[in-house]
Write a structure and sequence with these properties.
Distance between the termini: 10 Å
Number of strands: 7
Helix content: 40-55%
Number of domains: 1
Structural class: alpha+beta
Radius of gyration: 16 Å
Largest sheet: 7 strands, mixed
Number of helices: 6
Amino acid sequence: MDAVKAVVDFGTAAVLRYRTMSEEPDNRVQEYFLRTCIALGLYERFRCGVQLETLYTDVATSLGVPGGSELTNKIGGCKADIAVFQNGLPHAIIELKILDEPRPLWKVEDDVRKVRRLGEICKIQGYCGVLICQTAASLEEQTHRLERSLLRKVHTGATQISRDGKWQWCFGCCLVSGNQEPEGVGDAP
């Protein structure tokens, strides 16, 4: 399963669809819309179980971590935007964010810290998908800032021109927790 490419593909398609149907600027896409479109795309491409807004504690206990207040204290009430399942067990989680002027880099960093904390507790792949928008900084500068912050190469889709033609954006994704794709989930047929 090439989750990174899939998240980039489906994230890009979701933003393009939202801007067309809403007639709003590209960066006004709602995270719930991104979640829904990406989850549907993952299911259709890979025929894997996909859930939205899954509690991190549920992910951890499904993977054999004892529940209770100690687990809740470690990971709180966080929810994965998307949880990918195989054979009834979670194999990956995906967090989604928008990086633009009103939604700064530290919001992405907060989500990544939560994903990494879960990855320390249980064996799970954690991904971060980001709508990267040109601001006062160029799109390339924004992408490099994100990569420096995450200490990871962010794989991005094609650069898109905003609906009003005044700025650029792209969708990016990277693995932020774990070191390999979920076992047993092959490439799309």
